[in-house]
Amino acid sequence: MAAHREDLVTALESSLQACVSLFLATDNVEKGRELDNANTHGVEANIKRFLEAAKMLEADFLRKQMYSRVNHPEEVTKEEVEKMRAELAQKDELLTKTRDRITVWTNALQELETKQTRLYLADMVPQRPASMDSTR
């Protein structure tokens, strides 16, 4: 099994190296010239090999995942529970930050309302001239 996966990984690596080396071997890409027909077919073939190797490796991982889910469901359940706990912790933290922000904005709003009320009341109460206050 491990040798099979190593073969898949090796095939993926070698196909990627082939793709990259073909691009690096030609100056056509850097100079902006079009690739000739032979190079185009070589690039397409290497990319096709790379995609096939990637699909095979993905299929192998999916088989391993399915095997794990079928034969060890308690492990999968534990992983899912841990993910949910982590998500809940993140959401609790976000709620705490949001509540803190709401408190800050509520206090700021109350301060502004208090200032506005004081200004409004000050405008309603007629101001006596300073000379009248000093005569008493």
Automatic annotation (TrEMBL):
Matching InterPro entries, A to Z? Mediator_Med28
Q: Which UniProt keywords apply?
A: Activator, Coiled coil, Nucleus, Transcription, Transcription regulation
Database matches in Pfam families: Med28 (PF11594)
Residues forming coiled coils: 74-115
Subcellular localization, as worded in the UniProt entry = Nucleus
Q: Does the keyword Nucleus apply?
A: yes
Q: Which GO terms describe its cellular component?
A: mediator complex
Instruction: Return the similarity comment.
Output: Belongs to the Mediator complex subunit 28 family.
Q: What is this protein called?
A: Mediator of RNA polymerase II transcription subunit 28
Classification of source organism: Eukaryota, Metazoa, Cnidaria, Anthozoa, Hexacorallia
